[in-house]
Amino acid sequence: MWTALDTWRRNTLQLLVSRYASYSHELLPERVWIMAMTAQRTTPAMSGPLLAVLALLAAAAPLSSDMYLASLPMIATDLGVRASGAQLTLTALLLGIALGQLAFGPLSDRYGRIRPLMVGIAIAVVACVAAALAQDIWFLVGARFVQGFAAAAGIVIGRAIISDLNAGTGAARAFTLLLTISSLAPVLAPLLGSVLLAAGSWRSIFWVLAGIFAVMLGGVLLLVRETHPPHARDKAALLAAGDVVRRAFKGGLFPAYVLQFAFTFGVIISYISASSFVYQNLMGFSAIGYGAAAAVNALGMMTCGLVSVRLIRRFAVRRIIAAALTAQLIMTAAIFVLVLSDVPAIWAALPIFFAISCTGFLMGNTTSLAIGTVRQAAGQGSAVLGASQFVLGAIVTPLAGIGGGFTAVPMAILMLGCCLCAGALFLVSGRIEARMTGGT
C-alpha cells in the first residue's frame, strides 16, 4: 500500500510540474517545486521521447557542419574564393557555437532551461534561411556565425538538463547514450548533404537545415519540461554557481577534463575540416562516395558509443578512456606515417575509421567526468566545456586547410598532435584526482 501511495505522490507532483511549470513558475510554491524535483530524481526521468529530443539538440553541431562538407569545393567555386575561404565558414560556425555556449549556459542557470533554449533555436532557423540566400562569402560567414551562436543553446542546455536529472554512473551512461544517439547525425548528414548537392545546389542544404531546427523547436515545445526550479535561479544562486566553477578551476581537475575533452574533439574536427578535400581530391571519391565514407566513419563512432554504454556497467570510466586513448594514439600515428609515405592516399582510410571510432568511447565519458566536478553549476560548467571544444575547433579548422585542397599532411599532423595532448591531459587529471583523494 505504501509503495502505491508513494508512486501516486510522485506521479501527481510530476504532473503538476509538467502541466504548469513551462507557463508560470509562480503558480507552484517553492516547496512543491523542491518535492517535484526530488520525485523526478528518484524515478526514470530520461524517457525515450525526451532523450530523442535532447539527442537532436546535441546533434545541432554535427548537422550544421557535416551536412555541407561535401559542398565546400562548390561553395569555393560559386563564391569565387579559395579552399581556405570556404573553410572559413566552418571556422565561423565553430566560433559561434563556442561563444554561444558561454552565453546560453549562464542564462539557463539564471532564467531556467526552457526560455533560452527556445529563443536560441528560433534564431538558428532564421540564420539558416539567411545562409541559403547568401550571395558572397562574408555574408555566408556571418550567417554561419549567428547560426552556430544560436544553435549552441541546444547543445549546452541539453547537457545541463541531463545533469539536472542524473548523477554519477547514471550521468556517464546518459551522456554517452545521448552522444551515441546524436552520432546518427554525422552518419546521415554527409549522405543527406551529398544527395541534396547532387540534386540541386549547396543552398538547398541550408533550407533543409532550417527545417531541422524548426523540428527541434517543436520537440522542445511538446516534450521538454523545466528541470531548473525557481529557487535555484536567484542572483545569489547564480553567483554561488560562478564560485563553484572558479573553485573547480583552482583545483585543477575540471580544467584538465575540459582541455582533454577539447583536444579529443580536436581529433574529430581535424578530420572533418579536411575530409571533403582528402577523400574527393586525393582518394578520388565522388561527392556521394565521400558522403558514404564519412557516414561509415561516423557509424563506427556510434557503435563504439553503444559499446561504451555497456562497458560502463563493468569497468571504471577512466579505465575505458585510457584504453580508447591508447588505441586512438596508435591509429593517428599510423595515419601520420602513411600520409608521409609514398603510398596511395586510400591506405589511410582504415586507420582514419578506427581513430574516429575511438571517440565514441571518449566524448561522453569525459563529459560526465567534467560536469560531475561542477554539478551545482551545470549550466556554466557545460558552457565552459562546450566553449573550449569549439574554440579549439575554430583554431584547428583553418590549419587543416593550410596546405590547400590536395594534401593530407596538415590533417595528419593535427590529428596526432591533438591525440597526444588529450593523452597527456588524461595523465594530468589522474594525478590531480589521486592527490585530491589522498592517493599516490
TrEMBL record:
GO biological process, any: xenobiotic detoxification by transmembrane export across the plasma membrane
Statement: the UniProt record of this protein carries the keyword Transmembrane helix: yes
Transmembrane segments: 45-65, 85-105, 117-139, 145-162, 174-199, 205-224, 256-279, 285-308, 320-340, 346-371, 383-402, 408-428
Entries under Pfam families matching the protein: MFS_1
MF terms (GO), sorted A to Z: xenobiotic transmembrane transporter activity
Topology versus the membrane: Multi-pass membrane protein
Localization per Swiss-Prot or TrEMBL: Cell membrane
Superkingdom to which the source organism belongs: Bacteria
Record's keyword terms, sorted: Cell membrane, Membrane, Transmembrane, Transmembrane helix, Transport
GO cellular component, one term: plasma membrane
Domain Major facilitator superfamily (MFS) profile, chain residue ranges per copy: 50-435
PANTHER family with a match to the protein in the record: MAJOR FACILITATOR SUPERFAMILY, POLYAMINE TRANSPORTER 2-RELATED
Family: Belongs to the major facilitator superfamily. Bcr/CmlA family.
Protein name, UniProt field: MFS transporter, DHA1 family, bicyclomycin/chloramphenicol resistance protein
Species annotation: Crystallibacter crystallopoietes
